[in-house]
Amino acid sequence: MERISHLEPSHCQLDGLTALHLTAGRRQLLVLAQRLLFYGEIPTDGAFQNLSAQSFFSNGALCGAARLLVPPCKKSTSNLKYLIPGILSAILLLVSVSIFIQRRKRKVEVAIETALLPQLLWRRVSHLELLRATNGFNKSNLLGTGGFGSVVYKGTISDGIDVAVKVLYKGTISEGAFKSFDSECEVLSNIRHRNLIKIIGCCSQIDFKALVRQYMPSGSLDKWLYSQNSHLNILQRLNILTDVASALDYLHHGHGYPKHVVHCDVKPSNILLDDDMVAQVADFGIARLLDGGFTLIIKY
């Protein structure tokens, strides 16, 4: 091919070839492709720049410049074969990263929510179960009243455990009572101590809220202090005093919860006693959550 200076493949049946772009050493070949069955784009450089339309007569499969009297070439889509997969890959990567971030964010939110609201681990108790446990909140099951007009009933839930049910009805008590319920939930859900009342479950509806807590068979401290039928010896009094002090120290300094807790309503009726006369502090309806250090002023 190096010594060829002129090529005239007219009338040849070379079907399936693209337009010729040949070189002979340093000289461009002159290609006369008349009646040759080529297809594709006609080059415009080298020897092809001087060719006329006559050179490509009857080659309907060719395309190129208008002066060659052939159809214009369609834009090549070969680049799209690589561009489209690249775009799709980028979109897929973006979607995957977005899903990963959302799931990670959701896990963090769940972790935070679980840490701050352990009451989700409490047993969920329905209104119907509480009705059955207290015989329809019968007066014979009434244990007493709590802060903000709440009422406390004794009950036995389905697994046979005796409980005290602190009930608040919207409409029959002040709006502050519902707020106190939220305050008590926040405090009791974040603290654990042997001298603090234990929560077993909760029920929260639009017009009805209830805390199901451990039943204390020995009642409250005020019954033992002010009743003629009950008596506490000096050792029991000291033990109760120690229990209450331990609970308050835990609330103020020792529980590791981000906020310090000030009960604000420590009194004999809010100190409950179990069978062994171990004291537990209850009724956190007006407790205060304080960040960092705090100053508590006690008025007598």
TrEMBL record:
GO molecular function, one term: protein kinase activity
Domain of life: Eukaryota
Species for this entry: Prunus dulcis (Almond)
Keywords, in A-Z order: Leucine-rich repeat, Membrane, Receptor, Repeat, Transmembrane, Transmembrane helix
Subcellular location: Membrane
Transmembrane segments: 82-101
Main location per the UniProt record: membrane
SUPFAM superfamilies: Protein kinase-like (PK-like)
Protein name: PREDICTED: probable LRR receptor
Organism placement in taxonomy: Eukaryota, Viridiplantae, Streptophyta, Embryophyta, Tracheophyta
Protein kinase domain location: 137-300
Any GO CC annotation of this UniProt entry: membrane
